[in-house]
Amino acid sequence: MVDNLSLAVEDKELLVLVGPSGCGKTTTLRLIAGLEEPTGGSVSLDGQIVNTLAPKDRDVAMVFQNGALYPHMSVYENLAFGLKLRQYSRAEIETRVKQAAGMLGLAACLERKPGALSGGERQRVALGRALVRQPRVFLFDEPLSSLDANLRAQMRAEMSRLHRQLAATTIYVTHDQVEALALGDRIAVMKSGVIQQVARPLEVYRNPANVFVAGFFGSPPMNFLCGTVVPEGNALFFQAQIGSGIAAPNSLSLRLADAPARRLDEYLGKQVILGIRPEDIAPRTIREAPPDQTIEAQVQLVQPMGSESHVHLMCGAGSLVARLPASAAVRVNERLAFVLEMRQAHFFDPATQSVIL
Questions:
Q1: Is the pTM of this model over 0.85?
Q2: Would you give per-residue pLDDT tens digits along the chain (357 residues)?
Q3: Is residue 334 packed enough to be buried (19+ CB in 10 Å), middle (13-18) or exposed (0-12)?
Q4: How many CB atoms neighbour CB 173 within 10 A?
Q5: Per DSSP, which regions of the chain are E strands?
Q6: Domain 223-348 annotated CATH 2.40.50.140
Q7: CATH topology of domain 14-209
Q8: Domain 14-209 and domain 223-348 have a common topology
């Protein structure tokens, strides 16, 4: 289901629709392609309302998650099939197929059938079938989700290269936040059929519009603590709370950075949600900070990830995850002082879930 969606895609832009399964991403693509009928509103391409146009007349090409290749046809025949239906000349078909095959590294595979191809090659054929059409809009519905991690990373790079080369308007659907950040000129984040935020990738990561967006992006995701903004002297402090709303044990209190603090004046004495990314938490042995921006926490789990480690912490206000260099000397059950980089903290309204700052 899609709820009152309003979205404009710029010419030659690669816009990524991202969100959890069932949030309306694929339905949005199908509405644009003409495979679903909107119950209200309109779909327009280059200023032309296309609600009444059949899918074949909209000049869009859609690549599906499973590739949808014809198993009895060769790669060449799969690439050429749509052009034959549109009655292109044999010479034009030959030119377009060979051009697409060259761009996608399929020239040596043209006589083979899909069953003799690798997963990556089959996905390239699916992409090529859209490329030969030279449509005004490309629609991609999670085309890489069935590939293994290494191949998916390789195909992401190829997708970026192709988009730069073709400069074609593209809408790309994925549930993978890494894919969205890597591919998109802009990202539209969806939840339950509603657009939550539309922005450039780093803007979505650094300045999320609400708790959902903040928690969806990042690996590990953003940490959240509930608490209250309280004045102490000339400064504002975040007083952490546990689930029942009472002050956390050991009076976990963090001084707010001066500039953000001024924007929280109207929340004095009120509950807020503090969000902080794992990379903004570090042992005091690595990052210096005053005591009022430091917490005592016990290391519960260390997950080596190669060049970094994800360190799970327990403090009086709850659990946190820090992303540390692999060389960081932390051990399970160790109790250490950790610095929270409060200049990078985000604050959200618990009632609306929207960002305060």
A1: yes
A2: 898 899 999 999 999 999 999 999 999 999 999 999 999 999 999 999 999 999 989 999 998 877 778 999 999 999 999 899 889 999 999 999 999 898 888 999 999 999 999 888 888 898 899 889 889 999 999 988 877 888 788 888 888 888 888 889 999 999 999 999 999 999 999 999 999 999 999 999 999 999 999 999 999 999 999 999 999 888 899 998 765 455 444 558 899 987 666 788 889 999 999 999 999 999 998 888 888 899 999 999 999 999 999 999 999 888 999 999 999 989 999 999 999 999 999 999 999 999 998
A3: middle
A4: 27
A5: 14-18, 44-45, 48-49, 60-63, 137-141, 169-174, 186-191, 194-199, 223-232, 235-240, 253-255, 271-276, 281-283, 294-304, 308-315, 318-325, 335-340, 346-348
A6: yes
A7: Rossmann fold (3.40.50)
A8: no
Residue for token pair 């509603």: 194
Residue with tokens 């034009």: 92
Instruction: Find the length of the chain.
Output: 357
Structure tokens at 331: 């051990």
Q: Tokens 């160790």 map to which residue?
A: 334
